[in-house]
Specification:
alpha+beta
Amino acid sequence: MTRFDAATPEERQKLFAEGVVAHRERASPFVTFEAHVGASDASDDGETPESDAESDEDPDEAPPWVQFGDGTLNLDCTDAELDDLKSLLGEFPAFKIDDLTRPEEAEGVNVRVSALADSNRVAQCVERIFREVYDRPDEYRVWVAAV
């Protein structure tokens, strides 16, 4: 991989697919995609803003993330986000929720989704998860946090 972030739908889709391919080629345990938390994820010139002072989000809040490894997507979400995820997965018949874990020490739920699909289909699903489940704006920035 040569790029580790993207901020447009087309770039993100390509980044997600490349991340999945890199994970598979390296036989790494997983690849993690993490959304930038801030008011404006990318300015007109494509640069990340210096200040998140106008952000609606808590800067101390952990950013939303999706992990892929061994044919499985892994993510944390709230109960409302879980409902959105279930609805979204109805459009991806090859993706099924395998496991829900509700840790006592944390709010929300950890979800494991079997994703036995090619890298492009996994990338499509990951993009839709960030946009529809985590409610990211059109031009949100995402990072490959680990491969």
